[in-house]
Design a protein that fits this description.
single chain; alpha+beta; binds adenosine-5'-triphosphate; Kinesin; 2 domains; three-stranded antiparallel β-sheet; globular; 24 helices; eleven-stranded mixed β-sheet
Length: 655
Amino acid sequence: MEVQSCSVKTPKSLQTKPMDPSCTSKVRVIVRVRPFLSHEIPAKNGNPTSCISVLDPDPDSRDEVTVHLQDPDTSRKECYQLDAFFGQEDNNLRSIFEREVSPLIPGMFRGRNATVFAYGATGSGKTYTMQGTNLLPGLMPLAMSTILSMCQRTGSRAEISYYEVYIERCYDLLEVGSKEIVIQDDKDGMVHLKGLSRVPVNSISEFQEVFSRGIQRRKTADTGINDVSSRSHGVLVVAVSTPGSGDSGTVVSGKLNLIDLAGNEDNRRTCNEGIRLLESSKINQSLFALSNVIRALNNKEPRVPYRDSKLTRILQDSLGGASHALMVACLNPGEYQESVRTVSLAARSRHISNFVPSTHKQDTPKVKVDMEEKLRTWLESRGKTKSAQRIDAYGSPIPPSSIKKPNYSSAKAKVNTYRNTCNAKERGSSVPFRSLFNDEGLTDSCLASTNCAAEENGEKIGADSTEISLESSIHLPIEPLDKEYKITSTKSNNSVETSPIAEVKCTERGPLRKALSPINANVNQIRHEEEACKCPVQFEPKTPSTATCAKDKFVTISTPLDKFNAMSSSLKSSLMQEYVDILNTASREELLEIKGIGVRLADYIAELRETSPLKSLSDLEKIGLSSKQVYNMFSKAARGIFDKQDGAQLREELM
Ligand SMILES: Nc1ncnc2c1ncn2[C@@H]1O[C@H](COP(=O)(O)OP(=O)(O)OP(=O)(O)O)[C@@H](O)[C@H]1O
């Protein structure tokens, strides 16, 4: 069946496939789509259409789901296979918690570590998913409640730590002044956060008090895309110490890391600069490092690149080995391009890329993208801005006032202004979960989702529901201790080419740079424009002064040295553009042949160019490489032109 409509059609059974810890891959990857926010809904036309839907070709085989992304502008479609899907109509974090997170908790009491992280673009709902609101608690408070009730039953002790990783530095959020934490390796290769606070927690009210103070210390900013955008990765660690059996006096320790990752950002869209650009480069870099670690784990690669970022280095003891991890890929239903980027990276982590199983061809939408159509689409979309695409996406002329557009000027103005408090309106008050819990555990409003919804709608909840205990509401599957965890990562060779759309916005690009695209045909077409502008330097020795153009501006050639300089500059810019073209179009193997590009960099480039083709070498800096790395890479490639043989030949010619 060809999926024509973009609406989310998710049979309940598909949304809620419970996680079985005994038979999942080491890192489970699920999708959560947030609902449209009020300012994203056009006043007249009712609900906008989501660009994300799910279809399981075989409802009986529920090991994974096929997530579809459709660009409402171009009808381009992408498909990815992931472990589970929670659509926007299922806007209750409790079901994600019960199906995906609570199965990880019993293992903590037997010494296992686990990690849950929310991953996604800025504004896609990561913080909401992890923290929740006063009325709808997120995965963090829900997990804490469950852990506390299990502690009561088992005589275990729970302690929390809360820290952030900001521009590759680690800060203790439970300390006044957010003290920087030093990361140390011990002789066994274990990583320690020296001096990180650990606060004992005996009740939910204690937790809410301590945690909400930490939330206020976390670095956030108004980026123009999200009013309260997290600029750091926030890690809540719940450590549990359980007395060993018998009189041995041993203590079993396990911990759960609950991570609200900073948002993946397309710098072309955010117009980031200064500190924002640095933050965002580091964020993107560390998210990519995290995805590499997950991929290595899921593919049983011999080397897991934990040391590529501070976050993965810190999480080393909770990712891989006997630990379990869950990636919640958060999506904004109105952002196609951004969702493709998130889901493709999530799917890449799981190492299941786009594919159409041949037996299901009739049931699944076409996922191979026609190159010609792609080219046409790309050409048509040139010059379109993201917000224009978004307006089109809703299929109606939405009054501009009803759409929340990035406020670039305000983002710029606030570039150095951190707001170390949470937005009380949408992200929860500065003391989150107040009124949600009492010292015994959860109150009614967070125990029953129906009650939550009712309360949010202003309905009164029956007094007797306050008596419901947490234990009665959460059923934790018992995880056998001796069970081997099986990796069920599926591989497929069929992959789909992704969109080459390059959005040119907020960047002043001359015609030459704007023209770059990952498609050779385009590049050729563009070269004509380029040639026309290039005005090849006419060397007329007898003419003392010649006007010519180097790159996109005219210069005056008056001396042979000027000519030489103009020519070198033109040669350099052609070479650089050629190099960028190669980076955008070469296969992974070809990339590896280029001097200065190793396996990791090749993967990095291949990943990033899928959604954001490079436009110039400086784009490499924007995605996190240092200018030195870019310089080295290019100069190595340039030097490679004069390889040994050519060098000898050149020397011969010169002599
Ligand atoms: N499920 C949801 N229901 C209602 N509102 C939501 C939901 N998810 C997110 N939101 C709202 O969407 C906005 C963005 O969400 P949030 O701040 O959680 O995004 P984020 O992914 O953490 O962004 P960033 O990476 O910039 O910090 C917030 O106003 C939030 O209240």
